[in-house]
Amino acid sequence: MGQGVAKIWTAPDAIGDAERLSCAVSMIAARNALHGPLPSEILHDPALGILLQLFVASSGDQYLSLSQLSERTNVSRSVALRWLKVLEYAGTVSINDETADNPTPSLSAQGVDEMNAAMSAVINSQITLHGQHDDQRTAEKSVRSVT
Question: pTM (2 decimals)?
Answer without folding.
Answer: 0.78
